[in-house]
Amino acid sequence: MGVSALVSPRCSLPVVEFPVNCKYALGLQLGRSLRLICLYLPPSLPTAEVQSVLDSLPLTDDTIICGDLNARLGRLEKHFVLNVIIMNLF
Prior knowledge:
Protein name: Endonuclease/exonuclease/phosphatase domain-containing protein
InterPro entries: Endo/exonu/phosph_ase_sf
Organism: Rhizopus oryzae (Mucormycosis agent)
Strand order of the largest sheet: 1-2-3-4
Number of domains: 1
Shape: globular
Largest sheet: 4 strands, mixed
């Protein structure tokens, strides 16, 4: 399984990988504080393992999680605050 990110050569911020202890994620540090975690959660992944993956991510106030989460909502809504906010806009 692999996760990748494409970064424009014109990006003005330095981009370096930071360690994420998860085979479903790629961690990128953009500039001094912004962290981007690219995540892929296979549809067949059991809910308990999804919860474990989400709980293990190294989050800060400046962390963005993106990727293919396979529309996992329901009991895991607390991890998708932005989705809930956007859904309430419509």
